[in-house]
Amino acid sequence: MIKFENVTMAYRKDGNPALNDVSFEIADGEFVFLVGQSGAGKSTILRLLIREESAQAGTVLIDDINIGMLPEKEVPKLRRNIGMVFQDFRLLPEKTVAENVAFALQVLNKSPDEIKQTVPAVLDLVGLLDKANRRPEQLSGGEQQRVAIARALVNRPAILMADEPTGNLDPDTSVEIMRLLDQINKAGTTVIMATHDAGIVDQMRKRVIEITGGAIIRDQAQGVYGYS
Ligand code: ADP
């Protein structure tokens, strides 16, 4: 369970807060869209969850653990339990698909045997086993995003966070990526996705949390992007 309790966060002491008294809960296994204009505060919510930023007031909890109070040495463990996917994929260009995924395990000192087993399994999950030896530049945008999703899943995180994952993709490819995220969610992973993509949000009919100027103005089950 993710819980924000009256969270206020400002990047500068004298500036307007990026989040202002924000409270919400996300249960395990939910799929939630964070929507709102650029600068609304969506990414700030994601950054607080991985402790890239800390709130000035209020509490951010994951499974009753106060993320803001987490000792520094516990932060890597927190981040291993949260997969991250970005608009710009963030793959290593000189490494193959398999090496990109393996690298996420190597930095955690996983054994070669475990890496050898895990990499094909996650590539199979995202439908890219046959392209394991290609480099990112030899893949389409949608395929690169699949690699990024595979990499985010190697540690079997309980939570997958995606920040505008379809932002660089055409509409058909975006639908495919959403099918994959839906499948991952149905297998039990909590998915939180920040997006501007109205078409996708309207098609998926998942919970929608709308943020404006750092405040939640709507929290709707099976929601749509915006009211017309
Ligand atoms: P969104 O993800 O909805 O586009 P953000 O959470 O990135 O919005 O930003 C919320 C607000 O915080 C915006 O006003 C933005 O300009 C500001 N902000 C974001 N990151 C920083 C930063 N590193 N330093 C200062 N201000 C920031």
Biggest sheet overview: 6 strands, mixed
For the biggest β-sheet, the strand order reads 6-7-8-3-9-10
User: What percent strand?
Assistant: 25-35%
- Which residues form runs of ≥5 with pLDDT under 50? none
Give a list of the ligands.
adenosine-5'-diphosphate
- Radius of gyration from the alpha-carbon trace, in angstroms: 18 Å
Specify the overall morphology: globular
For the residues shown, what is the average pLDDT? 96
* Broad structural category: alpha/beta
Distance between the termini: 32 Å
Explained architecture:
The protein is α/β, with parallel strands linked by helices and 228 residues long. The protein contains 7 helices and 10 strands. The chain has helices spanning 42-49, 75-80, 97-106, 112-125, 141-153, 171-186, 198-204; strands at residues 2-9, 19-26, 31-35, 57-62, 65-66, 82-86, 159-163, 190-195, 207-212, 215-220. Strands 6-7-8-3-9-10 form a 6-stranded mixed beta sheet, sandwiched between helices. A 4-stranded antiparallel beta sheet has the order 2-1-4-5, covered by helices on one side. The radius of gyration is 18 Å and the shape is globular. 39% of the residues are buried. Bound molecules: adenosine-5'-diphosphate.
Observed structural traits:
single chain, 10 strands, binds adenosine-5'-diphosphate, six-stranded mixed β-sheet, alpha/beta, 228 residues
Topology record:
Layout: E1 2-9, E2 19-26, E3 31-35, H1 42-49, E4 57-62, E5 65-66, H2 75-80, E6 82-86, H3 97-106, H4 112-125, H5 141-153, E7 159-163, H6 171-186, E8 190-195, H7 198-204, E9 207-212, E10 215-220
Parallel strand pairs: 3-8, 3-9, 6-7, 7-8
Antiparallel strand pairs: 1-2, 1-4, 4-5, 9-10
The chain binds adenosine-5'-diphosphate.
The site of adenosine-5'-diphosphate has 11 residues, from helix 1.
